[in-house]
């Protein structure tokens, strides 16, 4: 046994060692960056909002430009993206201020007043603010045209900030802020005539006017502005620096360009007459055909709304449609294609739809496996319209011109060249009306978006989603 004096010294030594160990751990924690804490926890909290340009439930689950860019950032960090969806824009920046989320990816405009409260990443997209109105009403061309009118804006938005700034020079301006609706609902109210004027970002306007074809843009009330991600205003900028590095890489490797291609390249696509007629035909023609589209789509494991979009582009959902070249039915099959598919009656809605669905799937399987989605689908559609041989010719021309033959955005630039002798004489299959498949694919993408919006089998854009945790890792 140690004498009591030595026991006391031993105990004191253990205490000092333990205290030192605790202090050492606390010191290490104090010197741990926010980025290291996120990577240690295994997840990052991303707040966004439920709009077509940011986040929504699409045909295959969560999607949207901001959503896909932000979840790619999470993968870049090697963590799980915990996506928090706010129903009110006015809650997003305060959530960042309170550090309830690590990053806001919600189509946020960079402004001088916001810079005082939060930190912004580098910009990844530019927009302008527009005054929008309903077709048939007098077009506003200047601030003076807004006299005696009420302008409607989203509460907490840059639009509210801009109208406040303009009011200092034009004290006649009157506006109303709304904190319980999103931009899609705001624009719907303009189309319905409930609101005379509203302010919208240019990208929101372009995206939404397919759903609200009576919308029109008046004039710009801002200069070009930048969209960026928002971060808490702290001394620790480790997450911000990582985001800027990711955004720079995404610009360099073409990822942001591909997201723009996926979400915006087919916009604008439908004029007012086309969109109006499409919506009318949904009510007068589509409802009776939905069971037929669903049956054929289930057999081929594809989305019935996609099949319906193709059919509308082909025949306007008219089972007895006949083209000047002799193709017939809902899916406008040629005699040769119908014979190959075993279809006897091209004007029979069931046979035509089954044949068209089967043919689309066969074309898609012929596309080289290395080509990823959604490019595979767009190329299969182009082949459905212009023929697989002409598609291959366009891909060869694309490579000859220094483009990527495996990317639809490059191939669609080459397809119109098949109308020009200096180009088509170099190809195997010769002349083709190469402009048509470009418009064909663009229109189908627009019809498909509209059908997903109207017939959302997962969740409606207007559903009050409060929290979604998509598994993407």
Outline:
This protein is of the alpha/beta class and 473 residues long. The chain has 19 helices and 13 strands. Helices cover 49% and strands 14% of the residues.
Describe the secondary structure blueprint for this structure:
Blueprint: H1 4-30, H2 34-41, E1 43-49, E2 56-58, E3 61-63, H3 65-77, E4 80-86, H4 92-97, E5 103-109, H5 112-115, E6 118-120, E7 125-127, E8 129-134, E9 150-154, H6 158-167, E10 174-178, H7 183-191, E11 197-201, H8 202-208, E12 215-220, E13 225-232, H9 238-252, H10 255-264, H11 272-300, H12 304-315, H13 335-341, H14 349-366, H15 375-386, H16 388-400, H17 408-414, H18 421-424, H19 435-454
Parallel strand pairs: 1-4, 1-5, 9-10, 9-11
Antiparallel strand pairs: 2-3, 5-13, 6-13, 7-13, 8-11, 8-12
Helix pairs in contact: 11-12, 11-14, 12-19, 14-15, 15-16, 15-19, 16-17
């Amino acid at each position: 046994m140690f004498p009591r004096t030595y026991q006391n010294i031993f105990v004191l030594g253990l205490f000092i060692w333990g205290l030192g160990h605790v202090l050492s751990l606390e010191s290490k924690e104090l010197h741990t960056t926010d980025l290291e804490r996120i990577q240690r926890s295994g997840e990052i909290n991303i707040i966004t909002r439920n709009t077509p340009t940011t986040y929504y439930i699409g045909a295959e689950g969560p999607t949207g430009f901001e959503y896909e860019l932000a979840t790619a950032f999470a993968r870049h960090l090697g963590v799980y993206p915990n996506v928090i969806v706010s129903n009110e824009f006015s809650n997003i920046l305060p959530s960042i201020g309170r550090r309830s989320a690590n990053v806001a990816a919600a189509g946020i405009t960079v402004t001088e007043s916001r810079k005082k409260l939060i930190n912004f990443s580098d910009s990844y997209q530019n927009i302008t603010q527009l005054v929008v109105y309903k077709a048939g009403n007098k077009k506003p061309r200047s601030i003076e045209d807004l006299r005696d009118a009420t302008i409607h804006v989203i509460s907490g938005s840059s639009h509210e900030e801009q109208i406040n700034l303009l009011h200092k020079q034009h004290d006649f301006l009157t506006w109303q802020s709304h904190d319980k609706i999103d931009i899609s609902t705001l624009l719907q109210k303009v189309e319905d005539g409930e609101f005379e004027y509203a302010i919208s970002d240019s990208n929101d306007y372009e995206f939404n006017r397919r759903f609200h074809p009576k919308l029109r843009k008046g004039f710009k009330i801002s200069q070009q502005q930048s969209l960026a991600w928002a971060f808490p205003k702290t001394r620790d900028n480790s997450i911000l620096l990582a985001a800027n590095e990711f955004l720079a890489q995404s610009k360099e490797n073409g990822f942001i360009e591909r997201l723009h291609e996926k979400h915006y390249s087919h916009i604008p696509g439908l004029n007012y007459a086309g969109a109006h007629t499409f919506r009318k035909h949904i009510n007068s023609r589509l409802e009776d055909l939905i069971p037929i589209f669903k049956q054929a789509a289930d057999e081929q494991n594809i989305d019935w709304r996609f099949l319906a979009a193709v059919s509308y582009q082909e025949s306007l959902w008219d089972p007895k449609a006949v083209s000047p070249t002799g193709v017939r039915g809902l899916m406008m099959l040629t005699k040769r294609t119908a014979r190959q598919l075993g279809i006897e009656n091209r004007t029979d809605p069931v046979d035509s739809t089954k044949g068209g669905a089967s043919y689309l799937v066969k074309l898609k399987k012929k596309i080289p496996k290395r080509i990823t989605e959604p490019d595979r689908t767009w190329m299969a559609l182009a082949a459905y319209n212009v023929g697989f041989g002409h598609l291959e010719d366009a891909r060869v021309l694309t490579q000859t011109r220094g483009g990527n033959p495996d990317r639809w955005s490059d191939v669609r630039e080459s397809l119109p060249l098949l109308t020009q002798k200096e180009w088509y004489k170099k190809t195997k299959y010769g002349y083709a009306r190469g402009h048509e498949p470009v418009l064909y694919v663009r229109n189908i993408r627009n019809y498909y978006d509209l059908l997903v919006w109207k017939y959302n089998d997962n969740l409606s854009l207007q559903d009050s989603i409060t929290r979604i945790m998509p598994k993407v890792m």
